Here is the input.
Amino acid sequence: MSSPSRPVTQLDKSDVLAGLFATWDALDGLMTGLTEEQWQTPTPLPGWCVHDVVAHIIGTESVLLGLAPPDADIDVSTLAHVRNDVGVMNECWVRHLSAESGSDLYRRFRTVTDDRRKRLADMPDDEWNALTATPVGPDSYGRFMRVRVFDCWMHEHDIRDALGAPASEAELVSPASGLALDEMATSMGYVVGKLGKAPGGSRVAIELTGPLARTIRVAVDGRAQVVDDFGGREPTATIRLDGLLFTRLAGGRVDSVPVELSGDEQVGTRIVEHLNFVM
Here is the structure.
């Protein structure tokens, strides 16, 4: 594999695994005792019910265990909600596991994630930090696992939305949520500069409120980049919204959320219109 154009991300293995295992535990708790009717409840993801979301997670972790994706019974690329090759693979697993009862799927989830926990816990540091193919381009295996935290955490909340079981504040402030937001923050330079077309010299502060409170700062100096601070200068545009709603908007789960804008509202509005960036 060729070297990436950016530095390889080095992440603490114990921190990332704590987040990944925490969201698997949360998913396990949500699945416990579901009726077959609840397994078929539609989620915010087009074409997918709770059963489908869990099948997708099982499929991805199965591939990471070395299993080949199953063949589909139809050309899944023609489905309206399938947009790319990753979507094709996901749909193959969803259709492959669609005949399983909810209780059987739950047992499969436990078996697959138990196996993954063991393999990840035993993984040497040099393998954890090694360059590999990831959904965000060549990077460390550890970065790939942070992407897995993000994906599983987002799907936890898809299932919560479907079942009418929102997370309590204590459940929301978890090791997984911080890592999921860390992963999302890495894309904000692209969202602000490329999609939102913030002009040179812009300093954009995305202020997340509520239990997931944090501020993501993006400075546009030639190219837009996430920065720790603006060097004592005030933001030229501020976007303020609830942290959980930010993740739902960015993931395309909702079309709009309440947002407060200040400073250059034209730039702020354009960025908000392009916050739905997750493929």
